[in-house]
Every structure is written in C-alpha cells, then in structure tokens.
Amino acid sequence: MDKNVGKYLKTFIFSLLILLPGSSFAFASTHTVKKGETLYAIGRMYGVSVSDLRSANGLGSSSVLMVGQKLSIPEKGSSSAAKKTEAPKEGKKNSSAAEKPRQYDVYTVQKGDTFYHIAKINNVTVAELKDLNGITSSDTLHIGQKLKIPATIVNTENASLPDLTSSDPRKYSSKKGNSSLVWPVKNPTVTYMTGKVAGVQLSAARNEDVCTIRAGTVMYTGVYRGYGQVVFVQSKTGHIYAYTGLNSTSVQKGDYVVFGDKLGTAGIDAINGASQISLMVFQKSNPIDPAKAPRG
Q1: Looking at the domain 96-150, which fold is it?
Q2: Confidence at residue 203, expressed as pLDDT on a 0 to 100 scale
Q3: How is 20-67 classified by DSSP, letter by letter?
Q4: Domain at 172-292, CATH class
Q5: Which one of 57, 91, 217, 281 is most buried, by most CB atoms within 10 A?
Q6: How many other CB atoms are found less than 10 A from the CB of residue 27?
C-alpha cells in the first residue's frame, strides 16, 4: 500500500472513531508531536495514561513517534477498558477508588546505577523505563534521581518466614564486612554473626532510620521470638530480608517498600547497651551473605 494512502486511511479511521457514539474513548483534542517528546511526556501533559494514548491511536509497544505526527488525546477518565458500574447503595461508600491497585513505585538512583541495571532489577526494558520517565537518549542518570517504576505486588500470603533460632545467638566472629556497601543504616561497623543464623550486626546511631536495601513486600512486622522488633521483606526474586533488633517499625504487613524506604528505627542491644540492628538474608530458606544479596 502506498505510504500516503495508508496515512490518510489511518486518519480517516480515527476520525470515525471520534464520531461514532459507541467508541470506547471520548477525545478532547489532538496533539502534534514535537522533537524529543515521548508518549509518557505527552500523557503527563494531558493527564492521560500511556496505555490509553496507545489504544486511542492504534500504537503498539514498539511503535515510534515521528515529529509532526498527530495524536488523538482521550478525555481524562475515558478508557478502552471502562465498564459501567452500579451506583453505590445508600448508606454505603464506594470504595473502588481506594481499592484500585497502584500503578507505579519510585526508585532512587544510586551510585554506579545504569539504565540497564535499574531496568533489569525492576523487570522492565530500558526503553520502557525511559518512556515511563520521559527520558531521551541523551539524558544521563544522577545520584538521588527519582524514577517511576511499574508497581510490583508480591503475594506473601503463603510465604514461610525464615527459620530463625528461638533466641538471638549473640555470637559474633572477628570477620568485618565492607561498610561502604549499601546497608540499612549509614556507615555502620559490619560484624558477621556465627552459629545457626548467618547474618551481620550493624552499628547505628541512636534511633537512626533503618531503610530497606531491596524493594519488596512486607511479609511480617512486630516482635519475633528473641529478636525484638523485626521486619521481614520478600523481594520479587524470592529473597527474604530480615531486619531485626529494631526499636520501632513504621510499616505493616502487605506494604510494598522500595529501595531507601524507612522501615523503622535502630534499637538498643539489651546486653551491651549499644545502638545496633542485625540483617539476615535468605534465599530458598537458606541464609546467604548479606553483603552479596541484591540491592535496589
């Protein structure tokens, strides 16, 4: 088919979609694509989602925008998947909005991060990551930069908690860890624990914030055996991160936390009076070296 004929035919089809009363979308306006624009940036400009923009304009996930291309902009709230809903019964609140799952989480760029690394650990392509954040091929990453990532919900209902001993072993080796790695607290002295439970003890400032080093879903929070206040987080890769010996917790079971989110505050060791926490990481029920556990 001649390219010009195809172009005009496509325009004609979209004109019909706008006019037909049964169309899934109501169109507010059209937009002419400018140099450097992405579907994400255009969607943010008009307050519509990328998926609705694609559906309204017949674009696939591999479609490339061209300068001068005309896009039909759906009205806010219209959707190809929109369904009729019953009016809420008198005396009952419509909670569908509150129950709607979130679409995005936030990732904070760390030293040494690349687009490939961030995309890989969050199960998206580099192209999708850049499109979602309106990033062009010439843009670079900056430490501390906030990036949108697709939300991940990990089902922890049937997950088993780590098999920790019934009491804190309180046995430490002479082996010291690398304090320059990313840890739940800043610049800790890292001491390896010995015995049945492998992990590290991390020195901390009094009531220092304890932050997650790996995104995931909170599977347990509260007092656990002899470990005081604890938070267990399960990542999408199945790793379980056990943050123990906390003074307080600020998350609940089922919460999704991303890298750097606050889980609670550092606690005080009942024996030596030092401010510290412990970190253990499990993979398939087996403890692994926390220094080698995935971050991000």
Answers
A1: Membrane-bound Lytic Murein Transglycosylase D; Chain A (3.10.350)
A2: 93
A3: -TT-S--EEEEEE--TT--HHHHHHHHT--HHHHHHHHT--TT----T
A4: mainly beta
A5: 281
A6: 16
Side-chain-facing half-sphere of 82: CA atoms under 13 Å? 15
Three-state secondary-structure class, residue 243: strand
State the 10-residue block means of pLDDT for the chain, 296 residues long: 50 44 56 79 78 80 76 69 42 45 72 84 84 88 84 58 54 74 93 79 93 90 84 89 93 86 89 87 88 87
What pLDDT does 194 receive? 74
Question: Token digits for 235?
Answer: 């990542």
Phi, psi of 116 (to 5 degrees): -65, -45
The reply to whether 96-150 shares the fold of 3-74 is yes
Which burial class, exposed, middle or buried, applies to 283 when counting CB atoms under 10 A from its CB (0-12, 13-18, 19+)? middle
Number of H helices, E strands in the chain: 6, 15
Class of the CATH domain delimited by 3-74: alpha beta
The Cα 73–Cα 76 span in angstroms is 9
Could you give the CA distance from residue 64 to residue 68 in angstroms, rounded to a whole number?
12
The interaxial angle of helices 39-46 and 50-57, nearest 10 deg, is: 100
Of 288, 290, 286, residue with least CA distance to 277: 290
Give yes or no for a contact between 133 and 147, defined as CB atoms under 8 angstroms apart: yes
Burial of 250 (0-12, 13-18, 19+ CB in 10 A): middle
In whole angstroms, give the CA distance from residue 122 to residue 106: 11
- The residue to which tokens 């390896």 are assigned: 192
Max Cα distance, the chain (Å): 81
d(CA 105, CA 214): 13
Which tokens is 151 given? 């939300």
